[in-house]
Amino acid sequence: SFCTLLVCAFDKMRDVAEKAVATFIAAADDSNADVRDQVLQSFRIYAGKDLSGVVISIADWLLNHKPSSSPEKQREVLLKSLLEVLKAHVSVDTLPAATTEKVLKAALGDMLAVSELSSSWGQAATALFVHTCDLNPSAGMPMLIDAVPSSAGGTTPFYVLNALADFAAAAPLRMAPHLKELLKRLVPLLGTVKQENPRMLFSRALRGIGTAVIHLERFHNRERHADPAAGTEDAEAAEGDEDAATMPTEQLTPRSQACQYLRAS
């Protein structure tokens, strides 16, 4: 029947797509830098046809192959490819939360595996995590916070600090709902940071946190002084935030999430 033929056709298309992605992943280990660059571009183009398939396939490969048993350059190319794909094709609502969570786990796993401070592999993992965290902060921020030691005797992984600093600078409002838990972890560690690079990263992260607090205070003042009868923009925004109070957190704008955090605090 026509339906049977259609199912068979889709199955063949799926097989072709999976083989194409598998070929790209294997080619990411090529010793030729030009080939690796072409792989990155191929992923970006192919994702225009099968976005979820490309993202999930790369993330699954990274999660299923331990960093210690797979080539560093290959992982770096795949991390960069994911970032290019997300930047080119993904907005906040494009991918399911489960898919972005998978990407976050893959990126964080590589961040934790890198010990060299100037590693381009670690930098690629951090850049991917920060970008994906901006798409799904309700999943990304708890992962970062959990990676920070819960006691003063622990050592915070370098690229976790780097990601905190970068995310605080890039999206302070998205960090705002997680400030309380983050500060619980960071403050006890401040006196234990002796090396220059971690101290600089702590400073950057705290500066971003300070920016988030300033934004929160501004929103708080707007809400407090908004006059609904006056029909001002601030009043309309405040009313919008009141309406947002009953919405799931992941559906809120960064501004509404921040205001919701203020009320909860």
UniProtKB/TrEMBL annotation:
Polar residues: bias regions: 248-259
Q: Which GO terms describe its cellular component?
A: cytoplasm
Q: Where is the composition biased (Acidic residues)?
A: 233-244
InterPro entries (alphabetical): ARM-like, ARM-type_fold, Maestro_heat-like_prot, MROH2B-like_N_HEAT
Q: Which Gene3D superfamilies match?
A: Leucine-rich Repeat Variant
One Pfam family hit: HEAT_MROH2B_1st
Spell out the residue ranges making up region: Disordered: 223-265
Residue ranges of the MROH2B-like N-terminal HEAT-repeats domain? Answer: 53-229
- The molecule here is called MROH2B-like N-terminal HEAT-repeats domain-containing protein
Q: Which organism encodes this protein? A: Neobodo designis (Flagellated protozoan)
